């Protein structure tokens, strides 16, 4: 008798990972058959033990159930449900990855998964009494998720808003489908399992959700985050669906197994050949990169030597710049001091010149006014003299002597006028020349006062002459005596005028001496001005030298900037070389990753991704999450709508836009 067989026709059932019996199909003729359920085998089955609970129904419900006396039937049920959950989840993941696109609600493995999850959640539910009947639904514990996990409120609200759902079971089925689409079913059920005090209101103490098997199933559900599902909940009749598990999907013959193995072996060999070709190409690229690295290292050494030489030249130029700057500073300080001294001197001289000029201008204006008054008086006198001459011609004889005296007086007046004009010219020249001497101005004021007194005396004499002429007209007979007296008076006046002329000549001599003094003072001032001009020309030459030094300094700065540009360019070249080296390292790492691609990918958790990595748009029920099979990141459908074969799978798989471009670039670079 075979090992594990009995006399009553039953054979010992092999157990799965959890210790429970595995479901098998019974042949209609009662013959022995060989099956493999995803890695577990059972031979010579004459009778099958029932594994499903009686209340759930199914194919195993009508079969006779035979379990060991030592085991608890609820533990066996939990183990069977756990094994069935493992099979459904594993089959769903493998079929979805081979399917290579988003799953619809008509996909059979997905329907079987929801049926298995419904059985797992129904296990050990407490019966609640109502007015009409007894209720036993899984919608009650699923409603707790909204309180424990705030993000689940959106699913609960959307389930309640669905118009076609009338029963709690239909709502629970819709909730499971929405949680799978959100890729958060494992997170929601984990919150329920942690809060066992709240679950005890809905489940018995021996229920699957209250034991360790529930935690194992929640851990298995994390693998479903790889799957992208697009389910239409509104159009389905979730209230009237029958939850029956179809075991035909999980049972296979040895021939099918061998065929699958052959197919898998062929696929593995193809992948191996593909990887070997990749390795050859990568080895060739690595050798070429090594040669490039050697050449780049040589060029780096040359560039480093050139940089050292350039740095030494820059240091020398900087020292020269410092010296030139110090010299320029000293020259600028000296020039500034000279300029300040000259500015102070020029300002003082300008102030004195302005003061003297103002005083002289005032004196000149006053003298001009006085001369204008005198000229007007003289014109009046000349007019009166012309009238007197006409009267004297009429008085033929008596007035001849008077005319002679008048002509003499006119000559003296003309001489005086000429002297006055000369004095005016001299005064004008003196006013123009004597700008800074206050003593000379005082003397000139005294001279002008004396001249005014003399002119007043002359005007008084002229008035007397007019009176006398009038008297001569009245008394012609007494004209001779009066003429004699007048001649005497004219002689005395001429003597006085001669004395005045001598005095004026003396004054002219004094004025000439003053003019000489002023000319000498002007010459000294001109010499000082020439000295200042020479100093200014010297300062201008120094400023021109400073400008030339500045130009040289600017040229040196330009050279320094050019050297800096060369230095930056060399640094950029070194950075590019470093980038190339890093790219070669990345390629080597890509080779290693390609060699290790068959070991699996590291998937990003759904909790960590709330926005698309490329477009950064927030995920929602309408904008689903999709994993890139190359990098493991999460993207939206628009940013991951690409398919390429990878080393891990020869079939086309979903890839994000960045990985798609990178893989195409690699393939194009690897091509000869």
Automatic annotation (TrEMBL):
Residues 293-327, 364-594 form a coiled coil. It comes from Odobenus rosmarus divergens. Interacts with BMX. The lineage of its organism: Eukaryota, Metazoa, Chordata, Craniata, Vertebrata. Residues 104-236 form the RUN domain. SUPFAM superfamilies: FYVE/PHD zinc finger, RUN domain-like. Residues 1-25 are annotated as: Disordered. Its main location: nucleus. Pfam families: FYVE, RUN. This is RUN and FYVE domain-containing protein 2. InterPro entries: FYVE_RUFY2, RUFY1-3, Run_dom, Run_dom_sf, RUN_RUFY2, Znf_FYVE, Znf_FYVE-rel, Znf_FYVE_PHD. Gene3D superfamilies: 1.20.5.170, 1.20.58.900, Zinc/RING finger domain, C3HC4 (zinc finger) (3.30.40.10). One of its GO terms (molecular function) is zinc ion binding. Keywords: Coiled coil, Metal-binding, Nucleus, Zinc, Zinc-finger. GO terms for cellular component: cytoplasm; nucleus.
